[in-house]
């Protein structure tokens, strides 16, 4: 769940602000509580490298301790989201590696998805054009996804001789679009069209390309202005309750909600309602 550590708390120094973070292998921008990650190799449709995988993983891990960041937008430059692992910089070298090295790589890619799912901030994907392979998994790991009519999403691992089981695909995709649809995409590697993705629940909405990032940012801003501690709790419960029985989930939510009822944001919401004004949340 989202941490709130006030300036007077002795642990405050452990919670690093990310407003001034300088990314090396993608673009990072920060404004009004929203961090925007842009995959920015547009000449190659924004493929990933070993370095960008690692930096993305480390950034999402660090966001657990970034109390200034309330929501995240992930997008790609140049009309495409991400074409997956770079054929020359990743796929080629992988064919020369031994099993222990390959396992280190596949664990690293999976750790990126884990970091995205474990960071408390809601993540909004703005997904245009090509969204393939590991790029499709990054999109899938987002909490909300917006696409365009031109978005084509392909979990194409089987087309390069690999299993469809990659980076958590066999766990996450069926939960989003259903077992049968996920099975088809993971067995065949075919692209899911934007209308299919919208109809199946992969995309929350479709927008024209020029309206995509503004729409995703507007949603991120709405989330950032909300009760961020409670949003973190919601994200935590959405993940944890996959492995619970109904009785366990109801009890877990009872405890989670009781914790949220102790926050100042809960009091602020009541006072704003009583005063007939919009609440201003502080995340504590």
TrEMBL record:
<protein>
    <submittedName>
        <fullName>Enoyl-CoA hydratase family protein</fullName>
    </submittedName>
</protein>
<dbReference type="InterPro" id="IPR018376">
    <property type="entry name" value="Enoyl-CoA_hyd/isom_CS"/>
</dbReference>
<dbReference type="InterPro" id="IPR001753">
    <property type="entry name" value="Enoyl-CoA_hydra/iso"/>
</dbReference>
<dbReference type="Pfam" id="PF00378">
    <property type="entry name" value="ECH_1"/>
</dbReference>
<dbReference type="InterPro" id="IPR029045">
    <property type="entry name" value="ClpP/crotonase-like_dom_sf"/>
</dbReference>
<comment type="similarity">
    <text>Belongs to the enoyl-CoA hydratase/isomerase family.</text>
</comment>
<dbReference type="InterPro" id="IPR014748">
    <property type="entry name" value="Enoyl-CoA_hydra_C"/>
</dbReference>
């Amino acid at each position: 769940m989202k941490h709130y550590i006030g300036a007077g708390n002795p642990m405050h120094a452990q919670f690093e602000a990310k407003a001034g973070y300088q990314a090396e292998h993608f673009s990072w921008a920060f404004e009004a509580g929203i961090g925007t990650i842009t995959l920015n190799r547009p000449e190659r449709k924004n493929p990933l490298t070993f370095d960008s995988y690692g930096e993305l993983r480390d950034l999402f891990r660090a966001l657990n301790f970034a109390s200034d960041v309330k929501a995240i937008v992930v997008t790609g430059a140049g009309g495409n989201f991400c074409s997956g692992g770079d054929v020359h910089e990743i796929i080629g070298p992988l064919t020369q590696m031994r099993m222990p090295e390959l396992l280190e790589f596949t664990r690293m890619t999976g750790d990126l998805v884990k970091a995205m799912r474990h960071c408390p901030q809601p993540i909004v994907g703005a997904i245009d054009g090509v969204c393939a392979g590991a790029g499709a998994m990054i999109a899938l790991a987002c909490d909300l996804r917006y696409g365009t009519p031109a978005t084509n999403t392909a979990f194409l691992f089987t087309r390069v001789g690999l299993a469809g089981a990659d980076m958590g695909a066999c766990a996450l995709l069926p939960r989003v679009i259903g077992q049968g649809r996920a099975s088809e995409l993971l067995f065949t590697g075919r692209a899911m069209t934007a209308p299919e993705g919208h109809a199946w629940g992969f995309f929350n909405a479709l927008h024209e390309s020029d309206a995509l990032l503004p729409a995703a940012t507007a949603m991120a801003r709405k989330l950032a202005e909300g009760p961020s501690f409670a949003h973190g709790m919601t994200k935590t419960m959405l993940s944890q309750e996959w492995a619970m029985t109904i009785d366990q989930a109801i009890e877990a939510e009872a405890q989670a909600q009781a914790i949220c009822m102790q926050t100042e944001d809960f009091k602020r919401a009541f006072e704003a309602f009583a005063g007939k004004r919009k609440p201003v949340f502080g995340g504590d």
